[in-house]
Design brief:
The structure is a homotrimer of 142-residue chains. Chain A contains 2 helices and 7 strands. Chain A is an alpha+beta fold. Chain A has one domain: RutC-like (60s Ribosomal Protein L30, Chain: A, 2-Layer Sandwich). In chain A, a hairpin with a 2-residue loop joins strand 1 and strand 2. The two termini of chain A are 22 Å apart. In chain A, the strands form 2 sheets. In chain A, strands 1-2-7-5-6 form a 5-stranded mixed beta sheet. A two-stranded antiparallel ribbon of chain A has the order 3-4. Chains B and C meet through strand 5, helix 2 and strand 6 of B and strand 1 and strand 2 of C.
Chain lengths: 142, 142, 142
């Protein structure tokens, strides 16, 4: 299966996804755009210094990257079974994350489990990162 | 299988548990009581402001919620294969967490693996959260 | 299968590894040496107080412990399918971690997925910890 959408360049020798048994592990996805190589929602000043970050745009950026990684395996968000959400400022961003989350995960029969924690740091300018496990054989719930 | 125990209300559209293949993923469990909707171990003053949190009661509350989520899948703690423990103050609470942990996980033949990290924040008034993966087919170790 | 290498003593009643279905879960591995029981890369003064920690030696120590835990299951790093990396100072140590990582994970056909987050604290004197999931049936990619 070919992937029509580009994937973010890994920062070391790891894979975007690994299929084992009926599970598909997806590497932690931040919001770096695979084409521009820039984090979603970041505004820079004329010297290239970041001056503001829009968390909501970042949350959409992360889920866009998750979708692309799933698509490379022939899967979609409906195949996701478990998600870990990492936020650098949980108190400030938790409710916005939930709002964006609910736009993407709507199928009441196929909702994933979720675990959200507030971390000290994420790579680059990410305020949010998601770690996803999907099922390759959703229909049968083998 | 019906669940005789109530489960904490999710904060967004995610599932308490997902069964895929022989594995059962459990959503991250804090210590919010499913009936009172209040975090375990928290004392409030007359204005409703939290004034103290008893970590040990919280650890028991988390494991009570984990057990309820497992029971909804017809499982018990003996089916747990992997646990991530998140603490907001690892240095202070690690030894108490280990003490409580050892009360729940005693079956030397079926101990889960465990990973403990100290995080910056957890949702609500939780000082501890656990992410659990269980096996639905423990006896056979299929 | 017997394990010729010693494993670090667990801090509570959990297992070093658990095999379920085709997956093998490994407990979070820090860099404590299983023989000396001392964290890798730490220098102590004459009173036993730690005075410096070499992160690069710690990263190697973690991967040495991961390899020992895999070996106890008859597996090697080539069976690893998913890794979570926890760093206490991501900004300072991320690039060194990537450098060490790339020395251990080279087989382009069998790279694991990876998720790296910066945490507030790790147990003991660990600046790095890894949580690993491996596949017991790699060749067939069952």
């Amino acid at each position: 299966m070919t992937n029509p959408q580009p994937l973010t360049k890994p920062l070391a020798s790891y894979a975007h996804s690994r299929r084992v048994g009926g599970l598909v592990f997806i590497a932690g996805q931040g919001c770096r755009d695979p084409i521009s190589d820039v984090w979603a929602g970041v505004k820079f000043d004329s010297t290239g210094k970041p001056v503001s970050i829009d968390f909501e745009l970042q949350a959409h950026g992360v889920l866009k990257n998750v979708k692309a990684a799933l698509l490379a395996e022939g899967l979609s968000l409906s195949h996701v079974v478990d998600v870990q959400v990492f936020l650098t400022d949980l108190e400030r961003h938790f409710s916005t994350m939930n709002k964006v989350w609910n736009e993407y995960f709507k199928d009441a029969k196929n909702l994933p489990t979720r675990t959200t924690v507030g971390v000290k740091e994420l790579p680059g300018l990410n305020l949010i990162e998601m770690k996803v496990i999907a099922s390759a054989q959703l229909d049968t719930e083998f």
